[in-house]
Amino acid sequence: MEKSKVLVVGGTGFLGRRIVSASLSQGHPTYVLQRPEIGLDIDKVQMLLAFKKQGAHLVEGSFSDLESLVRAVKRVDVVICPMSGVHIRSHNILLQLQLVEAIKIAGNIKRFLPSEFGFDPPRMGHALEPGRVTFDDKMVVRKAIQDAKIPFTYVCGAGIAGYVAGNLSQLGTLVPPKEKVLIYGDGNAKVSVVDEDDIAAYTIKTIDDPRTLNKTLYLRPPENELSQKQLVEMWENLIGKKLEHISISEEDFLASMKGMDFAGQAGAGHFYHMFYEGALTNFEIGKEGEEASKLYPEVKYTRMDEYLKLYT
């Protein structure tokens, strides 16, 4: 079967660049949207040129120019949009409504994968302010997709390893602590933690797979469903040292959010749902979804003890 042509919108971002690489490595004709708004960001320009060297096609288009988006979309079969919904970086979820409109006008797309990759938004109606805006915005985009009858796949369910594992789930840092570690509650809530490159690999696997059409793919590889305590223990075994464990109660954690700025509160709220509620893993996958590692056992996903070795 001929492989689908893929357009990645947000291809220079944290997940986007990995999705471009996965698409190329899995043999898909790969197009990357080059936006004029990139301006003088030389790192992004050079990343785009590196993709071009690897065989990707650069396609000009802007969210402020609907016709340019339509032209870009008409060149491909599948659109993937891993735009940031993380407030510490940027929050652009609703920009995708322009992309949905372009896909609707173009009329040729057989699959759209919008920016998801974390919590499953329909399960987050109870989420704390202000972080719930991420889920509310994603639901607005989902409604637009479904109202336009655009075929879709939603990729959900992962705590991204770089934000959750490498720092032993500590807020405000991306590297592991050296002496003491904050433990959320009893530290036993299970979190699905997935390497960023594996997220990209699974995402690309879905696009020609009829089993994931109009479904949610959950990233919950069984050996990576871990508690915070298990992550900390893995790290302690790697470095041969026991850290001081400081338990923070649910009440104290919520109280600590009050002094944070908007981005900090949003991120802390997501950590709350992850580590106090176990919101990534506290449900059974129903008929609306599939689990990635079961569908694609050929993806040899990175176990977290291996991932943590990078930080030693």
Keywords:
globular; 312 residues; Rossmann fold; alpha/beta; single chain; five-stranded parallel beta sheet
The CATH class assignment is Alpha Beta
Which architecture per CATH? 3-Layer(aba) Sandwich
Determine the number of helices (DSSP H or I, runs of at least 4 residues): 12
The major β-sheet equals: 5 strands, parallel
Question: Would you tell me the structural class of the helices and strands?
Answer: alpha/beta
Order of strands in the sheet with the most strands? 3-2-1-4-7
In the CATH hierarchy, the third-tier topology is known as Rossmann fold
| Element pattern in H and E | EHEHEHEEEHEHEEHEEHEEHEHHEHH
Provide a descriptive summary of the structure in words:
The protein is about 35% helix and about 15% strand. It has helices spanning about 15-25, 40-55, 65-75, 95-105, 130-145, 160-165, 195-205, 230-240, 250-255, 260-275, 290-295, 305-310; strands at about 5-10, 30-35, 55-60, 80, 85, 90, 110-115, 155, 160, 180-185, 190-195, 215-220, 225, 245-250, 290. It has one domain: Rossmann fold (3-Layer(aba) Sandwich), CATH 3.40.50.720. It contains twelve helices and 15 strands. The N and C termini lie far apart (about 45 Å). The relative contact order is 0.14. A five-stranded parallel β-sheet has the order 3-2-1-4-7, sandwiched between helices. Strands 8-12-15 form a three-stranded parallel β-sheet. It is an alpha/beta fold. InterPro entries: NAD(P)-bd_dom_sf, NmrA-like, NmrA-type/Isoflavone_red_sf, PCBER-like.
